[in-house]
Amino acid sequence: MKHILAVETSCDDTSVALLNSEGKVLSDVVFSQLKAHRPYGGVVPEIASREHLKNLPYVFEEAFEDAKLSIEEIGAVASTRGPGLLGSVLVGFSFAKTLAYCLNIPYYGINHIEAHITSPWIEERKLPFPSLVLIVSGGHSHLFLVKDFEKIFLIAATRDDAAGEAFDKIGKKLKIPYPQGPEVDKLARKGNPESFKFPQPKLKKSLDFSFSGLKTAFIHTLDKNNLFLKNFDEKNLPDWVYNIVSSFESSVVSHLIDRVEKAIEIFNPCSIALAGGVAANTLLRIKFKEVAEKRNLPFSIPPLKYCTDNASMVGFNAYLKLQKGTPSELDSDAFSNAEWERIGGV
Ligand code: KG4
Ligand code: ZN
């Protein structure tokens, strides 16, 4: 049986993975564009696509070297088809389709969010259904009920910012260089989460998320107390920085965990799982595990390499689709947004 080659270029990470016919990851190379975007404080779409174009051939070669495989051993090609920055998606998408066409092998166009949703199963194959999956990334904060890999239902979404976006935006206010989320996590470990009080979002009757009020409260607190940094010098920060970041992180995580607990009560899942870039957050990982253990629920919190964008999750989702033998048409188009069937009505 032949191997799966997967390509991920939906945002600012260029990644290629190789998986065997059982969906086991043999290699995954991720090239971060961090340096290219840092001077601008965030991802610049035009730069992101050009960087993918430049880096993808090298990442591709390295993935084969790491897995000790040759191109003849590939039986299927997969890539992210959307959602994401369209210019970025198109680089990996065109690359993968061309490869599939030239090698005359099936192509699988993968929904990036669905790849995040199924990523907890990469290492926890026996995680039971239905599973409640929290996806938290730079562009998404969603709760899904995964009845099986083909029956995925949306039960809650953010009404405004995504959780990662909120971390990035408040980090920017403190002049933290891009990417702000991981740095916010680092600073929060040294702060007191009780120092500042931020209100919990008010959507009482809904399971939906909202982070813009929290973000505004953070900015008001800075202004009201005349707190500001001239520049971000990691080695020389006043205590209030650690404390305010820690308090903000604690409020975001409480909001996410509150939704997870309410959803467990309503939908009674057999397991819970966490995915997406913000799933790398230290406090969220601790609290999510506590929720599962308190209720004796099987859970999956993937290793950090499968939380942030990576081609392994794209290859694994293709592996699941391969079992059904339904490849994508080569003339399929990329997309920038994804629609989900919503259940629950709350
Ligand atoms: O899934 P991802 O790699 O890309 C998207 O599809 O968005 O998620 C990136 C997001 C960014 O907003 C980043 O700041 C956030 O995840 N992030 C974190 C941490 N690591 C990454 N946020 C909080 N704590 C972290 N440790
Ligand atoms: Zn992502």
Describe the protein in words:
The protein is an alpha/beta fold. The protein folds into two domains: 3-118 and 309-324, Nucleotidyltransferase, domain 5, CATH 3.30.420.40; 127-301, ATPase, nucleotide binding domain (Nucleotidyltransferase, domain 5, 2-Layer Sandwich). The chain is 41% helix and 18% strand. The protein has eleven helices and ten strands. Strands 3-2-1-4-5 form a five-stranded mixed β-sheet, with helices on both faces. Strands 8-7-6-9-10 form a five-stranded mixed β-sheet, sandwiched between helices. Strand 7 and strand 8 form a beta hairpin. Helix 2 (45-67) packs parallel to helix 3 (86-103). It binds 5'-O-[(R)-(carboxyoxy)(hydroxy)phosphoryl]adenosine (KG4) and zinc ion. The site of 5'-O-[(R)-(carboxyoxy)(hydroxy)phosphoryl]adenosine has 20 residues, from helix 5 and helix 6.
